[in-house]
Amino acid sequence: MSFDPKILGIACNWCTYTGADLAGTTRLHYPHNVRVARVMCSSRINPAFIFRAFVLGADGVLVGGCHPGDCHYSTGNLYARRRLAVTKKILEFAGLEPERFRVAWISASEGNIFAETVREFTEQVRNLGPQTKLAAQKRMLA
Amino acid sequence: MENPYIPMPVTVDKIFIEVDTKEIKTFRLAFVNKTDEERFNYRPGQFAELSIYGKGESPIGIASSPTDKGYVEFTVQKAGIVTSELHDLEEGAQIGLRGPLGNSWPLEFLEGKNIVIVGGGFAFTTLRSLANFMLNDEQRSRFGKIVMIYGARTPGLLCYKPELKAWEDRSDMETFVTVDKGDNNWKGREGFVPTVCKQVAPSSENAVAVICGPPVMIRFTLPVFFELGFSKENILTSLEMKMKCGFGKCGRCNVGHKYVCKDGPVFSLAELENLSREY
Amino acid sequence: MITKIGREKLQEFVAGLMKSGRLFAPVKEGKGTNFKLITDPQSVTLDFYNTIQSPKAVLFPQSEDLVNYNISHDGIASEPAPIDDGSRIILGVRPCDVQSFEIMDRLFNGSGIVDPYWSARRSNLTIIAYAFDRADPVDFYNAFGITGSDEQGSDILMVRDTNSFLFKAFTDKGTKLLETMPFLEKGTADDEKRMTEIVDKGRDIATRTLDTAEIHKRLAGIFDSPYWEEAAAACLNCGVCTYVCPTCHCFDIQDETLFGEGSRRKIWDSCMFSDFTLHASGHNPRTKKSQRLRQRINHKFSYYVENFGIISCVGCGRCTRSCPVNIDILTVVEEAR
Amino acid sequence: MIQIEKRLREEAKRLLETKEAAVVLAFGRGFDEEHPMPLILRKPSDAEKIVFNEYCTFNMARHLTEFPPGTKIAVAVKAADSRAVTVLIQEGKVKREDLIILGIPVAGMKDFRSGTAIDATTTGPAVNPVLYDILLADLLPEPKDVSPYDVLAEIEAMSPDDRWGFWSAEFSRCIRCYACRKACPLCYCETCFVDQAKPRWSEKSPSASSNMMFHLTRFYHLAGRCIDCGSCSRACPMDIPLYLFHKKVSKECEEMFDQAAGMCVDAKPVMVDFKVEDSDDILL
Fold this sequence. Notes:
The structure holds four protein chains of four kinds. By secondary structure, chain A is of the alpha/beta class.
C-alpha cells in the first residue's frame, strides 16, 4: 500500500479557506490528505503550531493566506511572511526536509489553485515518505 | 506493598451543584472495588487526590463524614485543568482516588470540648465533614456544645443548603448562617463572618475554634477569637498548598519543615506561629 | 582481601560487571562525564573528577511512568507501570555521592509511606565507590565527615593506582560480585600496602569545610532576614543546581498523553522554578527568587535536619560548578548569619 | 582590565552617590578570582566590591527586567550585552532614559567553566559596545574579516539527515533545567510557553520530541532578537552548542531582512516588522 501522508493545512478565513470552499463547491478533485484548520489570518499562526503539528506526527504542513497586499487586515500576511520564512529556516536547519512545509497565497477565487496546490504538495510529501524525525514516539520515552 | 501513587477506581454516583454560579459542585463517589472501600478509612479533615487520566490529579478535602457509609464526597471548585475536567463529568463517569491523605481534625483533642466551627465560602468542606461526624447519633455525646458560624458572599454561594437548614433546626447545636450581601429572597442574616462571630460571642470556656475560610476572613476572625479568650492552641485551621504526591516525598507543600500534605493540613495557630509564614 | 586489574583491562572488568546486572558508569558526554546505562564496555571512562549530574537518576530517573493508560471512545483503560527493579550496579561513584543514597533513603525508604520505586531498586543496588585522588577547590564533603576515600555505604571501594585499579569489598554483595570475575588478580601484600597508602592519601584530601553545628537552628533564626535578597541577587532561577544535585529529590506528577496513549509520570521538579508552588487559583507563596533560594538552602540545611536528622548535602560541589552565575552553596550557607 | 575595574568602581560610586542611578548592575567577586558573579549594587560604599576580569562574561542586561519600571539603572555592558540592552529598549521592556549605560570595550574574555577563550565561534566577534553613555576604556579596533557565522559552514554543509542526527544527539542531553532560557537577557516572558499548562505545548519529561519542541520554539522566539552573546550556551550544564542554532537563525534573518538585532534603538526588531517589498522567495 502506498504511503498516505497526513498533512495539516492552516488556512486564513478570508482567502484560502474560502478558496478551499470554492474548490469544493465547484467539485474540483484533490487529495483528502490535507486537513484544513481555519484561522482568521495567516498572521494568527504561531510557529509553535507548526512545530507541534510535526511533533504530533504531521508529514507535512501547508499554510495558506491572502496574496500579499490583499490581506483582509491589510498587513497580517506581511508579518506572517516573515514569521513563516523563519519557521521554515529553523525546520531546515534542524534537519527536517524543508519540502514538508509550504506557504501558499491563495485567494478566495482561486479554488483551482487551492486544489492544484494540495495535489502538488501531497505528492511532494508522499515522495518524502513518513515524517519520523520530529514525530513523537507513541511511547514518548521509549 | 500497596503502591501509594496508584489511584483506586471510583464512580461518580451523584453530582450536586452547590452554588448558583455552578462553579462549585459536590461529587459523591462510590468505590468500584469493595476492598478499596474497606481500606479507605478516613477521618474528618483529611483529603485525597482526585484524578482523571490524561489530565492529572488534584488534592481535595473530603466533604463527607466517615459516618456516611457507601460513598465519599468531595466539593470541588472549578479552577485548574483537573477541576475543570471534573466539572464537565457526568454521573456514572469513572475517575481515580488516592488517599486518604494528611492528618485530620484532632478528634481526640476535641472530645469533651465545646466546638465552634467557623467557615467561609467554599473552604467549608472539611468542616462539613467534621460537623456531620460530630452530629452523628453515635458520636454526638463525645462532644460538648456545637456552635456553627458559616458565611458566604451571597445566598447563592452558600454550600450544602439542605444541610444548613437541617442544622438550623437542630436543638443540639446553634447554627448561624450569614451572607455578606443578601438578595430579595434572603431572609437570613447579613454581615461578614467576623462580625457575626463577634455578635454570637461563643464562650472560650473549654472550647476549641475550628476556622476555615479565605485568608481575608481568617485575618479578621482571629482577633475576635483572641478577644473571646481562645488560646492559640485552641484555634485550629486547615492549610491549602500546591501538592503532588500527598505523602511528604515530592517536596513542594512545606511550610518550614512541616509538610502540609502529611503533617497537615490541620494545624493549630500555635503550631503555625512556630513555622515560617510562607503559605 | 584486595583484588586488582590492570588499567588496560578496564573493559574486561566492565564487561564482567555487565553480566551481573545493569551497569551504570561514567561515560563522556559533551565536555564532561555522566552516569549512563552501559551497553558498550568501551564507552566507560574512569578518567574524570566527578560527573556533571549526580548518580541519583540510577534510582530516581528524571521521568518515570507510574500508570500507563489508553483513552478511547470506549473509555479509559489503565494499568500501573511495572516497577523496573532489576539488579543495578553503579561503577565509579565518588565517596561523597555514595552518602547521598543514605540521605535519600531516609526520605524515600525510611519514613512514613515508602516510595516503592526507590525502595525496590535500592535493595537491588550494588555500589562500587571510587576514591578521589585529588581535591577540587569547590568540594566541601569534609564538612559532613566524608573523606575522599570513604568506603561507607558502598559495597566495593575502588582506587586507582599508577597502572591498575584495586578493589576491596566491604559487604557480602560486594565480595560475591568480585568473585564472579575470576580474571581479577588476587592482590599481593604489596598491593595491600598500596591500597592502604592510596586510601590514606584519599582520607587526607582537604576540601573546604563548614561549621555545621546547630546550622538548622541558625537558618531558622534568619528566615526573615534581608540576607536572602542579597544572596539571591545574582540567581537566575534556573534549575541547574537542583538537577545536578545528588540529594535534591523534589518531583512533579504529570499526565502526559499523546494520541490517547499516555502515562502518569513522576518527573523531577525544581524549587527554583516559580511555578513550583503556584496554586491553581493563581496564589503563589513563593513569588520571589530570594524565597526560592531560601527554600533550597533551608530544605537541605534546616528542614531535612529537623525531619530526618541529617543535612541533605554531601558537599560534592556540583551545584557550584554548574551554576551559570557562580553562586556557591557553601558561601551562601556560611554567610547566612 | 584592571583599569576597567577601577573606572567601573569610580562610576558606580559616583552614580549611586549622586543618585543618578538607584541600582548599578556590574560584576563582583565569586568564590574565587576565576568565578566572579553578577553584582547588583545599591550603596555607594559597595562599589569597591566590583571586580572586572576576563571571566566576567555575564550579560548584565539579563537583570534589567527584574526592576520595577522607572528604576534608574546603570548597567555595565560589553559589546554583545549592549545589543541586548538595545533590544530591550526597542521592545519597551526598559526605557532609554532610565538607563545609564557603562560601555566596556574589551577583548579576550574567557569561559569560567572551561577556562577557554570566548571567540567568534560562540559569540559575536565585536569588541565595542554599540550603545553607551559612559565609556570605561578606549574603543578597540574591531576585528576585521571575522564573521560570527563562519562557524556554521560545517553544519550548513551537512545533509538534512546528518544535521538531524547532529541536533538529535545534542538535544538528547538536555535535562530541561532551563538555564539557557534563564541566562538569556531576552527570555523575559513571565510564563514561558513551555511551562504553560493550557495549551500544553511540550511535555515536561525530557524526550527527543519534547526537547526539540522546546528548543525549536525558543530559537524562533529569539529570531531577529538574539544578539549572539553566547550566555545560553555557557549556562548549559550539558554543553549543548545552542549558539550554533541561534547564529544560524540570526544569519538568515540578516540575509532576509537586512538588519542585525540590537544595533540601533530606533529600529524595530525584524519579526515585529515587515516590508511590503519583502520577497516571496524567502518562503522557498
